[in-house]
Amino acid sequence: MNEKVLKIVQKIFNVISILGIIACLIGGYYLYRIDILRDPHALSELVMAHYILGPFIFIGLQIIQVVIPIIPGGITTAAGVMIFGPNTGFLYNYIGIVIGSIILFHMGRVYGSVLAKTFIKEKHYNKYMGWVEKGQKKYDILFFIAILLPVAPDDALVLISSQTKMTWKYFLFTIFIGKPLPIYLYSYILIHGSGFLANLLT
């Protein structure tokens, strides 16, 4: 009886995962069509036009850009700070990126290397998996360090990690603890970096 219940639960989660992928693809295409992925002003207008739902729209957008790694997250991360301010923007960025990372890790576990290779070039996939061959503990440490870096390919590494023996406990610990610093640094660099460079050149 327990095995039957477990199989039913697994099927339910598989259906939810598939629906989640479809929803993210549709959402990503819609956002691309209205040019939000390249225009922070369009994103700002969309969020501000929905005063109550705005934060949920933005968090949903961050989840989508993590689950579909081909969507650039730089614009949305910086836009979150510009739209909501440094503290609230940071919080919404953190919530969306963490939830998206958890979903992406789960999807990687469910669909395996087929999903990973869909979003990661084979040479890069083989390169990252080469890290795993050096030992799971060493890879876990490298993953934690990479998550702390604002320029690391976090989403690709999440997918790679889902193909390893990394435990859910360690993954969640790394994401919850490691994400705040790169989100803050990435937002700061994107918002103030261009102005800083302009001042140096003038």
Please, could you describe this protein's structure?
- This protein has 202 residues and is mainly alpha-helical.
- The protein has ten helices and no strands.
- Helix 1 packs across helix 3, helix 4 runs antiparallel to helix 5 (86-119) and helix 4 (74-84) crosses helix 10 (180-201).
- The N and C termini lie far apart (73 Å).
- Residues 194-202 have low confidence and may be disordered.
Describe, in short, the structure shown.
The protein is mainly α.
Q: Whole-Å distance between the termini?
A: 73 Å
Number of helices: 10
Helicity range? over 70%
How many DSSP-defined strands?
0
Beta-strand content bin: under 5%
Taking all Cα atoms into account, the compactness measure Rg is: 18 Å
Largest sheet: none
Question: Are there runs of 5+ residues with pLDDT below 50, and where?
Answer: 194-202
Helix and strand run: HHHHHHHHHH
Q: Characterize the overall form.
A: globular
Question: Structural class given helices, strands, pairing?
Answer: mainly alpha
Q: Compute the average pLDDT.
A: 77
